[in-house]
Design brief:
Distance between the termini of chain A: 5 Å
Mean pLDDT of chain B: 90
Helix content of chain B: under 10%
Radius of gyration of chain A: 23 Å
Structural class of chain A: mainly beta
Low-confidence stretches of chain A: 66-82
Number of strands of chain A: 12
Structural class of chain B: mainly beta
Order of helices and strands of chain B: EHEEEEEEEEEEHEEEEEEEEEE
Shape of chain A: elongated
Distance between the termini of chain B: 30 Å
Number of helices of chain B: 2
Radius of gyration of chain B: 24 Å
Shape of chain B: globular
Number of strands of chain B: 21
Oligomer: heterodimer
Strand order of the largest sheet of chain B: 2-10-4-8-6
Largest sheet of chain A: 5 strands, antiparallel
Strand content of chain A: 35-45%
Helix content of chain A: under 10%
Largest interface: A-B, 100 and 111 residues
Order of helices and strands of chain A: HEEEEEEEEEEEE
Mean pLDDT of chain A: 83
Chain lengths: ~240, ~375
């Protein structure tokens, strides 16, 4: 549910009503409170169901095996190199290059109440991968990130990032990653200007929107480049999540 | 004129309303208007967000089915090209976007002129971007946005990846709305509701098509409820890139995923649950396809599974050796947790021919 959707009747359904042009709505009379309750409940229902599909795509297909000679086209990104044996943070574990990631533009909505934080949070986003992983000696990791700009997550501007180990499924499987942005977003001050409509010639009106990119990424720890590909991403879907 | 809010405004509580009494125009009408403007003007819909396998053809089209709600004024289109080893040697591509009745707002990258290819495997690829004024596109009618990759020069003599790696299309929000200036704009006129001469400031009826009155509210609730929502999977209309089957019986498609065989690929989306978990979310389905045969029809079976409900529809795809489309219906079950729906597809064609499919497009069509 949208945190801002409000109260609804117990039935929690959109209550059917005559169309606006119907003669049912008597001419010349004010609206009564009973009908207004239906209006209120229905608007709340529409807001509560306003979660949108964001990304639906086939692919990427083969996940290229990594090679020890080219750490930036394969496995864990060595930037920064974890010389102390630590694990890089999620944004720095893969290169986010086109072979290992894809980005999609999205306009986000901030209508989620954050516990203990003033302001509102962005809607949660769930990404679901359909994939294959064959082999028991290596890992397949999947990533999802939201960034404010089109720069890769390791260059900053990360709103949320998540990773899942898809190795346990064996063969074809499905893996879900849910992002829960924790930063309060001011829907007004954190929005950018975006063209809303043409007004003739070069004139246009603008609207405000929270523009972002949704990144999906993957990495196979199958190191041997002579082995036939073992890992695949068949499809990726993402949507806003209550 | 109303400013379109960035948040729902009312968060209403039903209890203060006393059944039988007239409703205050200011107390109810303004928050309702804000919520309608938010639903239609801020909570705008993505139309397509798809990436594509590596391509080899220099010329192909990508089709994006679209149906414009009357109040949507502008679409943003982003196209990303594959990087190329030829980029430094002057490699270029020509990409255009066409939608009948539309025109670019300002300059656009998608005008068919030469655009430099990005470097191979570059991490920061600037997408080609265009914003289209779609106010002249016939509303409430199925149309097709075509993105064309018309030419390509790799110059350097290498064999680069080439073509379009991603297409994104999304509706743009409205900054303001004026139903007085255009009945297509959402909500009610911002200067209303004020019931002149009524001491109680009661909310009066007006008309469904005029800019004010509670009849307009009712009509706007219906427009917000029935607006299109999109789930679409797209492949380029190129013979070596489109999904295909040559099976004489219904079988999984070859999705061009390089896995050496066909797979049951699971396509996920989310149904809207307006009428409880037992009432499905009806969708219109558009499929673009071609056949290698001029006489053998293809078949496509789509299955939507959710919770304990599975709905299947099978459509005949009449033989066509040029890309064409058919439209049908599919009900998405809404009984799964968070209304998740899993779609699967199987297809067939007789006579050892090939059926190639480039689009599976679902558009919500609520009753």
């Amino acid at each position: 549910m949208s945190d801002l959707s409000g109260e609804r009747f117990d039935s929690d359904v959109y209550i059917p009503h005559p169309p606006g042009a119907s003669s049912y709505w008597e001419n010349g009379a004010p609206l009564d409170a009973g009908a207004a309750m239906v209006f209120r409940s229905n608007l709340s229902k529409l807001i509560s169901q306003s979660y949108r599909p964001l990304v639906q795509t086939i692919g990427r297909g083969i996940i290229r095996p990594g090679t020890t000679a080219d750490t930036w086209s394969g496995l864990r990104d060595p930037d920064p190199s974890p010389t102390d044996g630590s694990t890089p943070d999620l944004a720095h574990q893969i290169s986010w290059s086109p072979a290992h990631a894809a980005k999609f533009p999205v306009l986000l909505l901030a209508d989620r109440v954050l516990a203990g934080v003033a302001g509102l949070g962005l809607r949660r986003v769930e990404a679901l991968f359909d994939h294959a992983h064959r082999g028991s000696t290596h890992h397949l990791y999947l990533y999802v990130a939201l960034t404010r700009t089109q720069s890769p997550p390791d260059l900053g501007g990360v709103l949320a990032i998540g990773r899942a180990d898809a190795s346990a499924t064996g063969g074809q499987g499905q893996t879900s990653i849910t992002l829960t942005p924790t930063t309060a977003v001011d829907a007004v001050r954190d929005a950018i200007d975006i063209t809303a409509r043409a007004e003739g010639g070069d004139t246009r009106t603008i609207a405000r929107a929270i523009s972002a990119y949704l990144w999906v990424g993957w990495v196979s720890e199958q190191l041997n480049p002579s082995v036939a590909p073992t890992d695949f991403v068949y499809a990726v879907s993402a949507w806003e999540k209550p | 004129v109303s400013t379109v809010p960035l948040l729902p405004t009312s968060k209403p509580d039903l209890r203060p309303l006393i059944v039988g009494a007239p409703i205050s125009a200011g107390g109810e009408g303004q928050p309702w208007n804000g919520d309608l403007l938010w639903l239609m003007g801020t909570c705008v819909q993505p139309v397509a967000n798809c990436m594509f396998p590596q391509l080899s053809a220099a010329t192909f089209n990508i089709r994006v089915p679209y149906r414009r709600p009357p109040w949507v004024q502008a679409l943003c289109i982003e196209v990303e090209l594959y990087g190329s080893l030829a980029a430094a040697a002057g490699g270029w591509a020509e990409v255009n976007a066409t939608l009948t009745g539309s025109a670019p707002i300002g300059t656009t990258d998608l005008d068919g002129t030469r655009k430099s290819l990005p470097f191979d495997d570059a991490r920061i690829v600037r997408p080609l971007r265009g914003i289209m004024d779609v106010s002249g596109v016939t509303a409430n009618t199925n149309t097709t946005l075509t993105i064309g990759h018309a030419a390509f020069t790799p110059d350097a003599g290498t064999l680069p990846l080439r073509g379009i790696s991603r297409v994104s299309v999304f509706e743009l929000p409205l900054g303001s709305s004026s139903p007085t200036a255009s009945a297509d704009d959402p909500g009610v006129e911002g200067s209303w509701p004020v019931a002149t001469g009524d001491a109680r400031n009661a909310l009066y009826d007006g008309t469904a098509t005029g800019p004010a009155g509670f009849k307009r509210f009712v009509a706007e609730m219906d427009r917000a409820r029935t607006r299109p929502r999109w789930s679409q999977w797209i492949a380029p209309q190129e013979d070596s890139a489109a999904w295909f089957t040559d099976s004489a019986v219904l079988a999984d498609l070859d999705w061009r995923l390089g896995d050496g065989s066909t797979q049951t690929v699971h396509l996920y989306t989310r149904a809207q649950r307006l009428y409880g978990s037992s009432v499905a979310d009806p969708h219109e389905v558009t499929v673009w396809y071609k056949t290698t045969s001029a006489s053998d029809d293809g078949q496509l079976e789509l299955t939507a599974a959710s919770g304990t409900t599975t709905n299947t529809v099978t459509a005949t795809l009449p033989a066509s050796t040029t890309w064409t489309s058919v439209t049908g219906t599919l009900d998405l079950p809404a009984d799964h947790t968070e209304q998740r729906v899993t779609l699967t597809a199987r297809a067939s064609i007789a006579g050892g021919e090939e059926l190639r499919i480039s689009n599976i497009c679902l558009r919500a069509a609520p009753p």
